[in-house]
Design a protein that fits this description.
The complex is a heterodimer of chains A (480) and B (98). Chain A has 480 residues and is an alpha/beta fold. Chain A is built from 16 helices and 11 strands. Chain A is 39% helix and 12% strand. In chain A, helix 10 packs across helix 13. The chains are: A alpha/beta (480), B mainly alpha (98).
Chain lengths: 480, 98
Amino acid sequence: MPADLDVRAIADQVRRGEATAESVTSASLARIRETDPGIRAFLHVATDALEQARAIDRKRDRGEALGRLAGVPVAIKDALVTRGIPTTAASRMLASYVPPYDATVVARLRSEDAVLIGKTNMDEFAMGSSTENSAFGPTKNPRDVSRTPGGSSGGSAAAVAGAMAPCSLGSDTGGSIRQPASFTGTVGIKPTYGRVSRYGLIAFASSLDQVGPFAADVRSAARVLSVIAGHDPRDSTSLNVAVGDYEGACDQSVRGVRIGVPTEYFAEGLDPRVEASVRAALAALSAAGCVVRPVSLPHTRFAVGTYYVLATAEASSNLARFDGVRYGLRAPGKRDLRGMYGATRDAGFGAEVKRRILLGTFVLSSGYYDAYYLKAQKVRTLIRRDFENAFREVDVICSPASPTPAFRLGEKSDDPLSMYLNDVYTLPASLAGLPAMSVPCAPTPEALPVGLQVMGRPLEETAMLAVAAAWEAIARDGAG
Amino acid sequence: MPAPQIDRTLIQHVAKLAHLSLSDAEVDRFASELGRIVGYIEQLDSLDTRDVPPTANVSVGRAPRRPDEVAPGLNRDEVLAQAPQGERDGFGVPAFVE
């Protein structure tokens, strides 16, 4: 990892006065100017980034203590509202929206003296797995520009992979942090549902959405997680429980830690190069003293169907708010109220968003609710029980984060079902509300990144981070 | 239950419920795509879930209570500045009653 991407080192240097927030921010902006025209990770670069940085430097000059992210540039997924900074969710619907408030996670970054460097590209309203569903054009994968960076948080992953920012925030509903982390060779964490406030996250599926960090290494991601985690009175689903010592967890011994390997995840559809890389990581963790053993998660193959019923149902309800009345787009032309709603939503939403609103409205509609929505809620219970049973015998569960390395731009964009099936390894932990993360393992022979997914028990991010950091150390030492 | 026929009529009905004005081409496209997706989802039918309770949320704790106190909200002028059509102190909409 380049030293200039180490979040903790940057914050320490700025706090000690060995670097200024302005110099760190200038370097990040220069890197964005140089690299981003070929990647398009950013939808908007904050015009006040240097001003934010200078304010932090002045604070230090006055002798005030600086926060845990002092002078650290953070790229923010455009699904998180930022006061005074345009926020579009990569949709025409919000193309000119400037929010009057900050998401809680953004306010927490600011209060720890981070610099909001810009807003990153994504699949429109976080609906997609490749960032190709952005209304403003796709993001390219910095590791191979003919490929997607994954999605929906593809811009946030690419910003870190392209060394344009040392860390970023994404959101994960069914894998939207873990899969892009896997595709770009970055670390991405989806916390336990309820660990991080969703206030100010433009809602996709409220029972699944979680905000989490990307960084170049596990400890940097742990630092950002420790800043954004914790109870928020403005989100009634945010849990009022103690936040763990996430950075300390990265230094814990993993000797004797029991790692479950779900048999169902190593099945048809798994790319043999991905399997080889993940199995090598597991063998190395075993050699380091972990107890690696098979577990069974028998309902895994029902996760995609379950997810696409529940997530679209919730989305159809959440996206009802985009009606052309209070903010965002209103389609021009003189119409009655219903005509204005319909024309606005037709003009403002892209094809994937409409597809999901239609599917979600269908599964909730009279005559179909029991057969689809209620049925999927029951299968969600079975998927959750699978994990409860497995976690009686193991401390964490490890698997590939995605069945394949990054696919090519355009490869799946005409086939929605094939795109959905790519999420098969990330959806179950989302449905069960578990903490889960992707950490890079050995790339394929073609040098495409591969991600090891580590899943933990609810609220046990620490156990998950310990294993991820242990693997990262082995990989680094092995690489010399 | 028998698989529903995802045809133009059903898509038009659902689009009306969702306040989406779709073009004819979109109706055709979504009928075909959603037909495939719903066909895939039918696999859930192979599971016997008669005695399984539904999971609506996965929260591991009770929703915390908070005191019912008045707190400042968003600035009205800033909020109204984002409206497509402001009207005096509110949001302007087309007439919806005669």
